[in-house]
User: Fold this.
Amino acid sequence: MTSTFEDLLPSTERALLHRIAVAQTEGRSPSFVAGVVRDGRTVWFGSRSCVDGHAPDAETQFRIGSITKVFTAVLVMRLRDEGLIGLDDPLEKHLKGTGVGEVTIAQLLGHSSGLAAETPAPWWERTPGTTRPGLADVLGERPLLHPSGRLFHYSNPGYTLLGSLVEAVRGVPWEEALRTEILEPLGLGRTSVRPVAPHAGGWAVHPWADVMLPEPLEDLGIMAPAGVLWSTVGDLCRFAAFLAAGDDRVLSRATVEEMRVPAVPPAPGDAEWGYGLGLQLLRHDGRTLVGHTGSLPGFVAGLWVCVEDGLAAVALANATSGPLPSSVAADLVRIVAEAEPRIPEPWRPLPEAEVDEELLALTGPWYWGTYAYGLRVGPRGGVVLEPLRGAGRRATFRALPEGGWIGLDGYYQGETLRVVRRPDGTVSHLDLGSFVFTREPYEQGEAVPGGVDEAGWRGL
Assistant:
């Protein structure tokens, strides 16, 4: 007997509603909205408002601030996948005359370029984009504060440069590339550079009194790729599903996975937090979350994806400070994961076409020196090598067309595993990046570098 659980249990839905209700009340936000995605499908939406009968719905726009950076990063990765740029290319190769052209595209994506966090005064989030008509106005007289590539230092001007890079390579405005390459293919019809009704107004709530002040609405100009976008819970849930699994119309699954790999080591004291290629990385309640936070005067936002649990959550509020959508979105993932653990897919044998007798003969125990490993068959001719006891280096490998396998993760990522045969065609050993794996610990013969004592194993 099989069962499907497409919808959440009523008790789970109540727990989710309780979490955002507490966030709206304690954060003193005029309104708060959130949604949850499970296995690529939006399964829950909730909202709270200070005005009875006027709670926003899943299609009400809020400003999402720096979640915009993820969209810009996706545009850049598309250029890379098309072969138009390389991540290690210096910016100057594609965008001339910035004065910081030695920084690489990867460093800009991962915030390790050394660029300043903000533009020169005045405060860019509360002033018209016309205040900074060109990149020189964004970068200022001292754009680099740290050596490039050495450490993480969040930079809004860095993503302005990436937006200008997209325009230079594509030959169209950043906004047009965004619309045609991401929004339209993914069906994000309620995500836009300017607000489109219905949308929330941005408010500042007094820190010591229950009174509000409207925040100004600025167009941001050239800074748009760093944080201009408006979106909805509905659109961001669809975008979160894309960040979990990829979509070949926009980016492949492999490229989305690449974006989730830490680009630089976390700063001291931030062991639970990191940054990939346009994506923030977070350890929360024992789970790895990827996504981004966002804020602009009047708005705060959070989007997190937990690939392992097949869950994602979005939370948006229209207050400058107080509510914490990032924490709430992470809690929403935790609530569903703990209340309704993911039900694994049924075990199924490999398709008949994937059964390879030669590959089957390679499975079982192998020894690197005296360390015991097991080799088992993975999907599509791949293999998994893992320690049989104790700690060790586990890795999955993808089959190569020319034979052998390439490591996909862990210590052996990018390393080649191959079978070494004797002159008579029998298997001598496995070679993994020059490490020798034999069928017996320190097997006699020529496979083990340095040779093996001919007297063999002995007691005391």
The longest helix spans residues 10-26. The CA atoms of residues 16 and 332 lie 6 Å apart. The chain is about 25% helix and 20% strand.
